[in-house]
Specification:
With 279 residues, this protein is mostly helical. The protein contains ten helices and no strands. It has helices spanning 9-29, 34-40, 44-71, 74-93, 98-127, 133-156, 165-185, 201-220, 230-251, 266-278. The radius of gyration is 20 Å and the shape is globular.
Length: 279
Amino acid sequence: MISIKKGSVFTLVGLYILTIPFFNALNVTSYDNSQILGHFGASTTTFTYSTYIPFFAMLGFLPLGLKIGKQIPLKTMILSVSFLSLICNTASLYATTIEWFTVWRSLLAILSIIGIFASLIPIILKYNPVFNMPILYGIVQFIMQGSKQLYQYFGTQMTSIHNWTFGVYFLNINFLIAILLAWIFYKKDFAPMKTPFQFDWRGWLIILLFFTVVLFLCAEGQTRNWLSDPKVAMAFAFLMIIVGIYLIHVRFTQAPIINTDVYKYKNVVLGSLLFFIQE
């Protein structure tokens, strides 16, 4: 980090701004715009898949992305992710089919997870070194809500003046700012949270399968009239089977991605319910 006294407003603001491009990338991948539907001339169902797939790709990659993020030096990671995000975001603008558009947006969502993790580490280490969860939650919520408001104003409202491509150009400006700020605020290139790489690959594959089924239900459940359709009913049954398989997997795995033992504590169960109700 640059040599500025601890707790300075300049450092704090700079670090917060550095996180915004990657949160904005998540905002743009989940943005449902009828102009995009008209541009590709896709069916409503296909467009629904195109909207949901980047979101589920982000969720599915989250555990692996956090692990990878700990192994790579921060400055290298920020610069690499920003540059790759520029490529993926620009490629989505020139995609000729909605399938390729979805591929590029999904890659952008995956890269954003790594970028968010990398950009949050200096804030956490500097202003929340003991990893106080309420403080950490407040930091993340502050950035998420702030970036969402910025994108909705500049990236979404401005489409009425230009078109849906404005959001793409605006996001590229975000990544250029991230590259600039990374050069300013990251003087040393090191990985402060690096640990021996250990990952629950089998559990991750089970989780990916779970998200695939949920994706199908989100995209087609309503149009198929939910449980009255045999495929939807089968998908729900398959979900229960997958959950059962994962619970068995947890019992025989030393470090599972989601350790169900935490739900023995009432406050975790209550907190999880409140979180989903809020969302």
